[in-house]
Amino acid sequence: MSFSAEVRDELARSEPACEYCDLATLAALTRVCGTLSITGPDCFSLSVATETGAVARTMIGLTHRILKLKTEFTVRRSVLHKVRNYLITLPDQPSLKKALVLLGILDRSGALVSGIPHHIVARECCRLAYIRGALIAGGFVADPKGDFHLEIAVQSEALARALIELIAPLGVHARVNARRGSFAVYIKSAHEIRGLLEAVGAQRSVAEIDDARAVKSVKNDVNRRVNAELANQGRSAVAARDQLELIRQITRAGLRGDLPAALEEFCALREAHPDVSLRDLGVLAHPPLSKSALYHRVLRLERLADREGINRA
């Protein structure tokens, strides 16, 4: 099961906080993945097509319990994609138009509603229930082991904008992106995705995100340390190579025999250990020397070479 499917399944099992929350969830389900057909004057049918069992289960259960409407259920299997397709249809029946008004799909005059009616999301818990329903119906949450991404696919820009306004009080800054024939409300911040899922009750999914973030943090810290160490080793190797070349030039110039004991000690150490850093070279000295002490000896050799006109380029 994909992480998106796990999130949807967990949200579909959430308990309502008040008696109106289930209506808000059902309203979101029908708006996000439902299709309304007008078959005549005041004659309608509503169908919801989905590949997600959680959507089908929630849609049928809430429709029977809240609206008391008859539903038709069809299961088809896609040979190409090897997945089940669920089709839930609410055929024309005496109470359907009233139910469509209650769900915020039609207004009282029978016209289509573009946004989210206030009566559905008047309470804070109902606003969260509506977001939950939208996530169940059209939500996608990327596996947190990879890049963080959450989106809700909807059919109209007006609904997408309304969802963004509904989500904003949670401190989550969602954006909308136009797709071919649809719109996506999306969030890319791991912190905000976590906050949204926690608010709508996906605690198990939030725990998985926290685990993934902890693993990523450790990996990133290890990578930073490894990269820093590699960079230090690279700089040390270049410095050691330059020091060896400096020593060779001083030797070819016949100055090696007149070097002070401290500088000769450094030259001998570097020739004996051409690959180690100054810090490690100091440990090998007798008695041990600090990195700073050896660096000052390098500077003295450079000044000697400059004074004698040795070209160090």
Automatic annotation (TrEMBL):
Entry superkingdom: Bacteria
Listed PANTHER family: CELL DIVISION PROTEIN WHIA-RELATED
Protein name: Probable cell division protein WhiA
GO molecular function, one term: DNA binding
Family label: Belongs to the WhiA family.
Signal peptide location: none
Limits of the DOD-type homing endonuclease domain: 102-172
Keywords linked to the UniProt accession: Cell cycle, Cell division, DNA-binding
Pfam families reported in the protein's UniProt record: HTH_WhiA (PF02650), LAGLIDADG_WhiA (PF14527), WhiA_N (PF10298)
Annotated Gene3D superfamilies: Homing endonucleases (3.10.28.10)
Cross-referenced PROSITE patterns: INTEIN_ENDONUCLEASE
Cited function: Involved in cell division and chromosome segregation.
InterPro entries named in the record: Homing_endonucl, Intein_endonuc_central, Sporu_reg_WhiA_N_dom, Sporulation_regulator_WhiA, Sporulation_regulator_WhiA_C, WhiA_LAGLIDADG_dom
